Amino acid sequence: MSEPSASECRGVGISLRSVTKIFGAFTAVNDVSLDIAPGEFLVILGPSGCGKSTLLRLVAGLESVTSGSMLMGGADITALPPADRRLSMVFQSYALFPHLSVRENIVFGLRLRKRGAQEVAERLEIASRLLGLGELLDRKPSELSGGQQQRVALGRAIVSKKPVCLMDEPLSNLDAKLRNSMRREIHALQRTLGITMIYVTHDQVEAMTMADRVALLDGGRLVQHATPAELYSRPQTVFAARFIGTPPMNLVPLHEAEGGAALEPGGAVVLPGVPGKGVLLGVRPEDIVLAPGGLPARVLDTEFLGADLLARCALAGGEVLVRLPGKREVAGGDGVRLVLPPQALHFFDAASGRRRDDILCGA
Ligand SMILES: Nc1ncnc2c1ncn2[C@@H]1O[C@H](COP(=O)(O)OP(=O)(O)O)[C@@H](O)[C@H]1O
Ligand SMILES: [Mg+2]
Predict the structure, then answer these.
(1) Structural contact between residues 10 and 38, judged by C-beta atoms closer than 8 angstroms
(2) Ligand 1 contact via 49 beta carbon (within 6 Å)
(3) How far is residue 30 from each of residues 19, 36, 37, 42, 53, measured CA to CA in Å?
């Protein structure tokens, strides 16, 4: 039995150069430039309507760019029709043919391209083994669960042996548990095949768990292109800070005080050396520590999540959410002391929303 040969379907790199798509007066994708390495798993992440699907459809050739260009393996593909772009696609709607068996659904594209019977059989065998579809090959899509249907759609992408695979929210029709396992499957599959993946989702958990790098979009613009770890630890904008992390990062406006920043106008300095004017303090709920010597605060209410306990706390100037171990005994009305560890603090310009790396606490 032959595995997919390296030369045939190893990933190739993709470069987007100032890609823009305008529909009428609306700019859906705005000047996006991005390099995706061969064999990389790139996730395009962002809220609904931010241009993710449009960007993917531009790469696929299902839409034409208004301006900008796209390269695949160094060659310009901007004007190529979809069929010549060496990529496969998996959509949220699995787009299976209801009257065809699983087997015929998977090899449909190969038959269209008039591949020989032996090649078709070999590729089907590999795909069905990788996806555990062996016993389902004679069924019709209506006789499959959602997860099984999704696997058939993946099988179709695998047998095409294209070096690039595009997926648009492929798991959003599945229940939470199945989404978890399919996430792992898709990731493992991408690694096994070595293909380049561009995967669209609005789900930050999918992005954080699957991606080598994430392209975060907001209103058609690329706001950050980074590894999941970087995106979490050094969000470049307030938007990125709020979009990554559950619950999201706390953001507290700072105020100018003698020798540093205060949490309320005329308040005491809590962050020495930090300019207060026009600056937002960001701190993740999991980074705040309850300890003596911290800022005095009052617990407003709590939410028990099993492993974690979320405590909404009022402190001078505002409210913050604090994530504590679930065993921690804290209840609404309690007085607590909150420590904001200097190394866990983020600062943003209040007007532009941009990260300010020039600010260091305690400096
Ligand atoms: N063919 C089209 N004509 C006009 N507007 C479109 C078209 N396709 C998408 N849009 C608009 O572009 C924006 C981005 O859409 P889309 O890329 O589907 O977002 P996402 O996939 O991130 O939810 C939306 O406001 C959508 O209404
Ligand atoms: Mg979409």
Answers:
(1) yes
(2) yes
(3) 7, 18, 22, 19, 13
First to last CA, the chain: 64
Q: Which two tokens stand for residue 27?
A: 């700019």
* Ligand whose nearest atom lies closest to the CA of 25: 1
Name every residue whose Cβ is closer than 8 Å to that of residue 185 and which is 6 or more positions away in sequence. Answer: 131, 151, 154
**Residue pLDDT, tens place only, 266-302:** 999 999 999 999 999 999 999 999 999 999 999 999 9
Check pocket membership of 28 for ligand 1, CB cut-off 6 A: yes
Residue 119 one-letter amino acid: E
Half-sphere exposure of 178 (CA within 13 A, CB side): 13
Residues 6+ apart with CB under 8 A from 15: 34, 35, 36, 70, 71
The partner residues of 121 in beta bridges, in order of sequence, read none
Instruction: Report which of 67, 72, 104, 97 is spatially closest to residue 85, judged by C-alpha positions.
Output: 72
Is 0.85 surpassed by the pTM of this model?
yes
Rounded to an integer, the average pLDDT of 236-260 is: 95
Q: CB within 8 A of 233, min separation 6: which ones?
A: none
- Name the fold adopted by 246-349: OB fold (Dihydrolipoamide Acetyltransferase, E2P) (2.40.50)
* SS3 call for 281: strand
CATH value of 6-237 in 3.40.50.300, 3.40.50.1820, 1.10.150.240, 3.30.70.20: 3.40.50.300
Q: How far is Cα 55 from Cα 220, in angstroms, rounded to an integer?
A: 9
CA dist 231 and 267 (Å) reads 32
Q: How confident is the model at residue 189 (pLDDT cuts 50, 70, 90)?
A: confident
Could you state, in order of their start, the residue ranges of all structural domains in the chain? 6-237, 246-349
Q: Average pLDDT over the chain, rounded to whole? A: 92
Closest atom of ligand 1 to CA, residue 57: 17
* Per-residue DSSP letter, 322: E
Longest Cα–Cα distance of the chain, Å, equals 80
- 11 DSSP 8-state letter: -
Query: Quick check: CB of 52 below 6 Å from ligand 1?
Result: yes
